What does this fold into?
Amino acid sequence: MITSLLSRFPLWVWWISAIALVAVSQFAQHELDALYKLSQFPVSFFEGQTSFDAAKVKSWYAILAERGTFGTYVWVQVFDYGYMLTVFAAFFTLMAAVYRSLPAKSWARGVAKAMIVIAPMAPLFDALENLVSLVMLADPLSFADWLVYPYSTFACLKFAIYGLTYLWAIAGVVIALVSAIIAVFRPRAQHVA
It folds into this structure.
């Protein structure tokens, strides 16, 4: 099913779509970052989401309450769902473009096909993390401490897949370019021989 979907559009359509959707996703991230900054959350996204420490999270929520920005932080969580949609679309099209750019018989095509499924899981883990976050935010100073474990676990999985996706996008493009250059020069070398 994935292969038929990927072959439905020419390569250039996948790349233009990927570039456009990555740009939209980056814009959404910029807006999300600005809203996060307005919330005056005392630590970075990464530190706040991966602490695995309920006492720290409760202390950060208390600081928001003191500053009167708790409501803004809740809106960050809500806006994040829109951002996740942009990431899902961007990652799927980017991975599809990389897949289509690789030679059909390349070992890298198997990795690329797997990444078409793996990369869009980042926003899915983000959605699960936010769901737990919303439960925690409903009772910010007294939520059950164990909630921090699925919250931070989903965040760690999300960040790991983000990193893997960006690394594979770079590696896949390099492999595709090297393969294309080899394909151009191989017939000439055989002709000369």
Remarks:
- The chain has a mean pLDDT of 93.
- The radius of gyration is 21 Å.
- The first helix runs from residue 2 to 7.
